[in-house]
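User: Structure tokens for both sequences below?

Assistant:
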Amino acid sequence: MKVVVDIYGGDNAPHEIIAGCVDAMRKYKGFDIVMAGKSEQIKTLLKDYPIDDYSRIEICDAQEVISNDEVPTTAIRNKKNSSLVVALEKTKSDKDCIGMVSAGSTGAVLTGAFLKIGRIKGIQRPALAPVLPTIKGGSAVLIDCGANVDCKANMLVQFALMGNAYAKTMLNIENLLSNGTEDKKGNELTHEAFTLLKQTDLNFVGNMEAREIISGDYDVIVCDGFWGNIALKSLEGAFLSLMSLIKAEVMSSLKTKIAGSMLKKNFKNIAQKMDYNKNGGAPFLGVEKIVIKSHGSSRAESICGSIMQVVNMHKNNLIVNLKNELPNTEQAE
């Protein structure tokens, strides 16, 4: 089986992306890597990252790059020789390709996956579903976090079904799901979604406060892409700001510096636990093959993690399990 990687997607491309690919191949066996990008440059850079078996690498030449400031739909249609489009088409056409990874433009990756790879039959809109660490040491799936800004209630129901299947397949957690605490809370969309979710077989526990997202009391959090993206970025920004404040306070006097040096390992452990990008990216659930969107600033460790996400999701039959949820979506069609 093969994993396709967009070598020129992301802030640290191509060096960190190639390094991540090589790390994955050094650590794990049983799969090959397809690198999409400027072939001659990739071959040159690979000399800096020696591996035992170069036959595990296939290079698909692509001379163009899609940037973050381009209109996603236009870029996908016009830049057919871009690393992202070539990666998407390879993933779609080659039966041995089980999925792909890209740290490129989020809009372009999601639009391209929808247009080039295609959605699972019965799914109205695929959704982005990052896994967040919780303060109890577990994980929570946030779906959707940016793919679908304007949603209908039945789309939220499908997000719930996909998030539930993903949580059970990859995280081994029970189907516990939440959408905004009072039953009547929210706007017309959340009211309608609340009613529909109550009618499913899911263990729907009702609405929640946004401050409880990483409490560990909920395994799957469902929202539209607009508010999901705000929640995700707010969590990320709040944590980074808090760590900066703690650092400034620790460095404010000799006494606090001494205390801080004693707690340095503890602070580092907290930072690692709360870094949801460390072990990979977010899956785009609802398309016919596995697509992992890595953070734009991903380095080798995260790219390696994203590649292994594709491999592990394939081994755990994620796509099949998502499709098995579809009979429950008939009321939402």
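Moving on to the next sequence.
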Amino acid sequence: MGLHWIGMSKFLHALASVTVYRPSGLLYIVVGRWHVYAWNPVLWLTLPGLAIMILTRKLRPEGLVVATIVAYLVFIGNYGSAMYDWGGRLYLGPRHLIPLLPFLALPLYFGAQKLRPVFYPLAAVSIFYMLIGTAVEPRVAFPFGDIARDFLLPDYLTGHFAQNTSSLFDAAHRNLTEDSTAANLAKVVHIPGRYQLVPIMV
């Protein structure tokens, strides 16, 4: 599972797997006639934002610092040989790309400024899917063709929240509720599933 050059075609496949491909690419978005499935499509705006930074003289130093994330992407793309290696196993989206997110905030700002009409719907979709992933189960396995469509969205709409049955800090894996080691306060006090997020939202 070591770091080694895997060849250009395999590297591009690895890079696409953690960025644009289903089931867990950070930027993936699928738009159909009556549906949108995605993870964080608002981050697409970092690309024009980074271009703006590099082309603007006073922002160029910061833009070049952000551009060094390419080295990190090369590292991740040549680490191991499967999505479990590149993405970081069973998590919502590619866990190994989390360290890049602070570097994407600045170009996202400049991209959103220039493309504000596109920013709002992409931000809404991103927030919605991160909400359902967090509410239902952020540690997701990969048997799903589309995690949002096949697992998270149906469970969110039927109120099946806080599904985690394993524990990081409790060797006995004691449940906090009748069916999981994860919980939200409403689930602990036995509020029915579809109403459990109402206190948090209020």
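User: Anything stand out in the second?

Assistant: Residues 158-202 form one domain.
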